[in-house]
Write a structure and sequence with these properties.
- There is one protein chain.
- This protein is α+β, with helices and mostly antiparallel strands and 486 residues long.
- The chain is 51% helix and 16% strand.
- The protein contains 10 helices and 10 strands.
- The chain is flat and about 170 Å long.
Length: 486
């Protein structure tokens, strides 16, 4: 899976990943004690081997020691996923940022697969570290250049908090297709339109959608592509996604796969391997431990086909195990034989006691009367059982009717609430339109008033000019010729 690792590093990584899957946890104590029984080695020695896998070279004993380069394994992890892929050559990736309390911030890229995520690249930094994430994301994406064949269709999804123009361009540069969620108020201008407007205004009702080509702008950076908008029923916010795919190829439902990465975080933490309980404080060591969990995730997806072949139990341990199991079977069979013998003796004693008892039978009329009583009692019990069955059916029918009545009542209440909400939305839309028309009317009146004022000023200016000329020069007075220059 990871040919770039040395033989010793691959052995320890295999032990870690196998133990994480087998013992359902990544705690070093749990792994060392559990794997020590399988490997038949002292737990303390194995614990130190597992711990040194995440150490840097300076922290290890001895000369010529080296540390695991996690960045060199990202491309091989993706190749391993592609190698076992079945079906269409389509791959969905998601990038996201998660935190571990106030200790770490994890920037990761994962393959979305069967409702979960398989990490293939990550960068762990201190949670309170200041600065941009752009160098980290660009470094993670650069490790995948030329890894995916050109005939594969790869989409990379990200939440709206990660959108940036440089990220969109970096994904397109790899030959992949970005599907990045953006904010609703991002300015957008569709093809053949002249002005920009917020993207969210194109869908105003739940259950509707819109898609089209155009250009959008954020902080003065204009980008071109396809915008997909969808507002599903039951959701308070709209889904606005930008991509470079055509309108016919793109589908807003693909973005729902991005939420599978939340299940991956749950598997890493409280829902699976308990990473939230780690005592690590060094981001570099945490990255190396993430490598073991990433390999374990791929092993878990292939389980139980995946087998562990780094080490095998010794022959002496196998022999002792077989002897122990044979001894358990012997004692179990011995106890079963003893119980069976006691049961047989008890049955024989009971049969002999019955033979010794006299077989005195009551008279014929007494037996007849007893049979009649038994028949009557059986009929009475049958009638009683039928009455109880009818009562139970009636009670179930009554409860069912009550449930149906409550369901109809709740459905009517929901319909009433939906109608009220729809009415309020229509009323808000009507008020908004009235305000808009009033604003337009006021603006039109203001323009008309300014125009009239300009016309009045022009008319008064022209009248003043004509009166001044008439006072300076009389109509019958000729103009004197100007003197000639010397």
């Amino acid at each position: 899976m990871l040919p770039g690792l040395s033989k010793a590093e691959a052995r320890v990584l295999g032990l870690l990943s196998y133990g994480i899957v087998l013992f359902n946890g990544c705690g070093i104590t749990r792994l060392s004690h559990g794997l020590a029984k399988i490997e038949q080695v002292p737990a303390g020695r194995l614990r130190q081997r597992l711990r040194e896998f995440s150490y840097e070279a300076e922290a290890k004993r001895g000369n010529k020691r080296r540390e695991v380069k996690v960045e060199a394994c990202f491309a091989d992890l993706l190749r391993s996923v592609l190698r076992g892929w079945e079906g269409k050559k389509e791959l969905a990736l998601a990038m996201d940022a998660s935190t571990l309390g106030e200790r770490f911030t994890v920037l990761s890229i994962s393959v979305m697969y069967r409702g979960c995520g398989i990490p293939i690249a990550w960068k762990i930094i201190p949670a309170m570290q200041e600065g941009e994430w752009r160098p980290y994301w660009e470094g993670l994406l650069s490790t995948f250049e030329g890894v995916v064949p050109p005939d594969w269709k790869v989409i990379l999804m990200a939440d709206r908090g990660l959108y940036a123009a440089w990220l969109y361009q970096a994904i397109v540069k790899l030959g992949w297709h970005p599907m990045l969620r953006v904010k609703e108020d991002l300015s957008f201008r569709a093809t053949a339109e002249e002005t920009f407007s917020p993207m969210g205004l194109r869908v105003k009702r739940r259950g509707r959608g819109w898609s089209g080509k155009g250009e959008w702008s954020e902080h003065g950076e204009r980008m071109e592509g396809t915008v997909i908008i969808r507002w599903e029923k039951g959701y308070a916010e709209k889904l606005v996604v930008v991509t470079d795919l055509n309108e016919k190829e793109a589908n807003a439902a693909w973005y729902q796969m991005r939420f599978w990465i939340e299940d991956e975080y749950k598997d890493h933490k409280s829902g699976g391997w308990g990473w939230e309980q780690t005592k690590m404080t060094d981001p570099g060591r945490a990255e190396r431990q993430w490598l073991a969990r990433a390999v374990a995730m791929q092993m878990a997806e292939e389980w139980p086909k995946q087998t562990y072949g780094v080490y095998k139990p010794t022959k002496s341990w196998v022999k002792k195990s077989k002897q122990k199991q044979a001894k358990k079977r012997y004692h179990k069979n011995k106890q079963a034989r003893t119980c069976q013998g006691e049961l047989t003796l008890t049955q024989d004693a009971a049969q002999e006691h019955e033979k010794k008892q006299p077989s005195a039978q009551p008279p014929k009329h007494v037996r007849k009367r007893e049979r009649a009583k038994q028949e009557q009692e059986a009929k009475r019990l049958l009638r009683q059982a039928k009455r109880e069955e009818r009562k139970r059916e009636q009670e179930e029918h009554r409860v069912q009717k009550l449930c149906e009545h409550e369901e109809r009542k709740q459905e009517q209440q929901h319909k009433r609430e939906r109608r009220l909400r729809a009415r309020e939305e229509r009323e808000q839309e009507r008020l908004w339109r009235l305000q808009w028309h009033e604003q337009i009317k006021r603006k039109r009146e203001q323009r008309l008033a300014r125009k009239q004022e300009r016309m009045a000023r022009r008319a008064s200016g022209a009248a003043a000019t004509s009166s001044a000329l008439s006072t300076i020069l009389a109509d019958d007075q000729p103009l004197a010729s100007l003197p000639k220059p010397p």
